[in-house]
Amino acid sequence: MTIHSISARRANRSAEARVADQGWRELASELNNHGCAVMEKLLSPEECAGIAALYPHEEHFRSHVHMARHGFGKGEYRYFRYPLPDLIGALRTALYPRLAEVANDWNERLGLAQRYPADHAAFLKQCHDNGQTRPTPLLLQYGPGDFNCLHQDLYGDLAFPLQVAILLSEPGRDFTGGEFVLTEQRPRMQSRAEVVPLTQGDAVVFAVHNRPVQGTKGHYRVNLRHGVSRLRSGMRHTVGIIFHDAK
Q1: Which residue in 20, 47, 241 sits closest to 137, CA to CA?
Q2: Which of 33, 36, 86, 180 could cross-link 206 (Cys pair, CB 3.0–4.6 Å)?
Q3: Is the pLDDT of residue 12 over 90?
Q4: What pairs with residue 233 in β-bridges?
Q5: Residue pLDDT, tens place only, 161-204
Q6: Hey, which residues does 167 pair with through a beta bridge?
Q7: Is the CB of residue 239 less than 8 Å from the CB of residue 163?
Q8: How many CB atoms are located within 10 Å of the residue 56 CB?
Q9: What top-level branch of life does the organism fall under (predicted)?
Q10: What is the number of other CB atoms lying within 10 angstroms of the CB of residue 182?
Q11: DSSP state of 60
Q12: What is the spatial distance between Cα 12 and Cα 86, in angstroms, rounded to a whole number?
C-alpha cells in the first residue's frame, strides 16, 4: 500500500466522521428557510493552513484565474486538477449524499423530474457523459481591496444545486472585511442580502442557482447569487467545493 493510498484512506474516514457529526436536520432547515447554512469547524486550523499553503504550487492546479481580467471582481483563484488533494476529495464525496437529499427534496417541491443519485461517483459519471469532465473545486486568494462580484457557479448544463465554501483564514487576525454575502431575488420584490459570519475552518453551504419558496399557490423558485465583500486588510483564503464538473 502506498503512502498516498494510506493518506487517502485516513482523509476519507476523517471526512465521513466529521460530516456525519453535523446536525443535518438543523442544516436542512436552514437551507430550506434561508438558502444557506453554516457547518462550524469542519476543518482544523492545521488543515486550513495546509490547504492554503498549496496555492503557490502550480502542480496541484489546472488553471489560474485573475478576476479583474474577466470582470469578476478583484482577487484570484486556482482550480484544482484531478486527483484532488485527499481531504478535499474526501469531503466532496462525504458531503454529496447529505446534500443530494436536500437537492432531491427541492426538485420534488418544484415539480422537477430530475433526481440526483445518492453516490457522488454516479453523479460525476452523469457530468462526464454530458461532456463536463474538468474538476471544479478551487482555492481562492484575496488581498487588500479585493472582492468577488455576485455570481453563480454553473459551468455547464448539468449543475448540482448546492455548494460549499470553507474559510481557511481567521477573520480579525489574518484579514479584515471580506465577508461572505448571499443575495436572493424573489419575483416582484427587492433583493434580500445575507451576510454570513464565518471563522477559520467554518463551512457555508448555499444554493448555487435557486431554491424553492412556499407561496400561496405552491412552491416557486427564487434566484440566488453569492460573492465576497471588499477585503480591508490582510490575506484571505477560501476553498470552494462544487459538486458538478465543468465543460
Answers
A1: 241
A2: 36
A3: no
A4: 176
A5: 999 999 999 999 999 999 999 999 877 778 889 999 999 999 99
A6: 238
A7: no
A8: 9
A9: Bacteria
A10: 20
A11: G
A12: 8
Per-residue pLDDT of 21-76, as tens digits, reads 999 999 999 999 999 999 999 999 999 999 999 999 999 999 999 999 999 899 99
Domain coordinates in residue numbering, the chain: 3-242
What number of CA atoms fall less than 13 Å from residue 63's CA on the CB side?
Answer: 9
Give every CB contact of residue 243 below 8 A, 6+ residues apart in sequence: 92, 95, 96, 99, 120, 123, 136, 160, 162, 163
Angstrom distance (rounded) from CA 235 to CA 228: 13
| C-alpha 83, offset from chain centre | 18
pTM for the model: 0.92
- Distances in Å between the Cα of 186 and the Cα atoms of 25, 129, 223 are 25, 34, 7
The highest-level CATH class for domain 3-242 is mainly beta
